[in-house]
Batch of 4 targets.
Target 1
Amino acid sequence: DQQVKQNSPSLSVQEGRISILNCDYTNSMFDYFLWYKKYPAEGPTFLISISSIKDKNEDGRFTVFLNKSAKHLSLHIVPSQPGDSAVYFCAASGGPSGTYKYIFGTGTRLKVLA
Amino acid sequence: SQTIHQWPATLVQPVGSPLSLECTVEGTSNPNLYWYRQAAGRGLQLLFYSVGIGQISSEVPQNLSASRPQDRQFILSSKKLLLSDSGFYLCAWSVKGRYTGELFFGEGSRLTVL
């Protein structure tokens, strides 16, 4: 049962344009969401997060949008740069007290073309 | 500052051999600890998490086990490896008592079972 889904395995974007990565979740108990960036043979690095009490969070070129009713979040990267080429994972956590699990999606490989 | 280390970085093991991957966290106390696996073409799968010494929660039934003998030490083991155990293993930690915070990852361990 895949509780966090990233339905696009790959995405190609021209340098300078917007990259939009999407993520859907099924568990309505999730109330904290994160995006990670991962290069091959390295651990993922944290990009940005959002709590369910918000619908938008911005940090520099990265913005995360949350639509709770649709159980959908997206990561916008503007402008996209070649160094942004990596695999992006969304993750979700939350639930009853004492649940500390972070559930990850399957990832989207972003390629930014120069 | 907090750091997380895991070793070995790469490991090639025959089917049926034992496994031991180690992870230690420095600069924090009483963290939540996690083991994830990234198999080829797949996302980050949560294997085990621990909220305290000797407290291990297993997410996926398999021939792997985890132990937390000390506060900041997390060990992933197997008595007999299977081909399907090949993958990239990641240790991670988060602040105790919170699920609305970052998950910090180690550098990863590449396991190839032949």
Target 2
Amino acid sequence: AQRVTQPEKLLSVFKGAPVELKCNYSYSGSPELFWYVQYSRQRLQLLLRHISRESIKGFTADLNKGETSFHLKKPFAQEEDSAMYYCALSGLHGGKSTFGDGTTLTVKP
Amino acid sequence: DVKVTQSSRYLVKRTGEKVFLECVQDMDHENMFWYRQDPGLGLRLIYFSYDVKMKEKGDIPEGYSVSREKKERFSLILESASTNQTSMYLCASSSNPNIQYFGAGTRLSVL
């Protein structure tokens, strides 16, 4: 069975501080990992996926297969980063995705 | 730009009513999904479909059914709505790679 765990439901940091949103997963095959973001009054949208190895809006995430983690990081948080973040997993060959419970990030001025 | 359109943003229904939630995507995606989003519970998959007339149960299918008669349209049906089905419902579609594109959501209240 595939499972995604986001241990923090709420995370609050000050503007300019580093931020890390944790994600751990369990999956028996080769996973594909994603981070999705939902800003206030907007639809849920893809932020980044591990295969593309991009930095989006200053965020990065590295897949650590040894620790089965895919933590989302940003060195200097901005107020506009305040949102709900979901970590998600699917098999490399497609199929359904499993989402974590989400972390609400608040960046205080 | 991929567009996933859910027919209603808000719905209010009474207990026992049959409820239809409609979702249409315009990118010829094979896969379509229905989730419910509840505070503290994240996104939970209700049903998904890999192709026309094909459907698979997700994690919480009880009390729901789906229909996919055309590739672009995926309907979620609540046969007899109950108060515990009050929630935000999200539709999504995807192709390969498995990036999901979401609709704006339908907030359903069952009274």
Target 3
Amino acid sequence: LAKTTQPISMDSYEGQEVNITCSHNNIATNDYITWYQQFPSQGPRFIIQGYKTKVTNEVASLFIPADRKSSTLSLPRVSLSDTAVYYCLVGDMNGGANNLFFGTGTRLTVIP
Amino acid sequence: EADIYQTPRYLVIGTGKKITLECSQTMGHDKMYWYQQDPGMELHLIHYSYGVNSTEKGDLSSESTVSRIRTEHFPLTLESARPSHTSQYLCASSEFSGALLAFFGQGTRLTVV
């Protein structure tokens, strides 16, 4: 299971773009990179997943360099409602339950 | 929206009582999970299942037990609740070949007094 490292916390003003980087130096060939968002008192919610290059959906973009040893979640023009904890997960899609390891995540606080 | 439901949403119960936290999903997912999370802290995997009649303990030792008699249902039981069991319990499910694409319920916040 690839170990991930991400900042403990980040602050951003409303309307700014926020980039959260996750390091995963030991990522394996079959591993995917997945990001979740968790609001207080709720379960985590899937945001985006990628294997390489760039993935974009209606919520965020995910940038993955060629060596795949890191990834960056980009949230465009954040609002107060984006205040949450963001988790980076790396693992095999056919892997076991330990692939859903959430770690400490990055606590994003959006400031008015 | 994810079709995974947890009941009750909140529960306050006395020490020594037996409780069962319910979790049901209508997506036909084989894999189901229970996590425990204290406020502001990490999620800890306490139980998981890969299908009917399959249950395993997770990384965090827990005095709770689970069962998986039907695909859609994965209840968690505490035989004798204690104040140390006070926490939020989150249930999740995923397809067998979609280990990283999990859907979570809203959680049950348990308080043992």
Target 4
Amino acid sequence: EDKVVQSPLSLVVHEGDTVTLNCSYEVTNFRSLLWYKQEKKAPTFLFMLTSSGIEKKSGRLSSILDKKELSSILNITATQTGDSAIYLCAVGEETSGSRLTFGEGTQLTVNP
Amino acid sequence: EPEVTQTPSHQVTQMGQEVILRCVPISNHLYFYWYRQILGQKVEFLVSFYNNEISEKSEIFDDQFSVERPDGSNFTLKIRSTKLEDSAMYFCASSEFLWGTQYFGPGTRLTVL
């Protein structure tokens, strides 16, 4: 069965800290790995990583895909209270309907 | 910035009733999806839709579920006879390309009593 596992499941840090969130996957026909931020309701897109784009950066957030280790990390530097959210990892497969398989998410809490 | 919208934000229904959840995908997107998230659990894929046909569906998407694009802008999910276990947040998503980034709507919280 295809699987996406995130760790840690929850994390509490202080403003200014740097955090690293992990995602590992076992899927049959890997196509892409996506990171989303879920605050109240809708998952908001952060990054998509593929074989042709294994590293992405936007401001204080960055992500790397390790296709050999079947994993990805999401780094957030100089965390702010507004970074508090659930961070979801999802893997896209080369199926007919491009389904995404999600991990459980990491609940990040940034305290002032 | 274009976004996916969903209505209603919260729907309460009695077991056995039919519900229709509505979504307006981003206007130039061609691929549409439904996912659900039971409280405290993972987001799960239900179905993908392209060119007025289902492209792929999961084991969850049984005969009580159906999808439709009734006009050029709406995309709907119908649950024919709701069960208690259908209570969940239902997310609509859309993408421009087959394996493009999927953008999610705010969700409809369905509560089946």
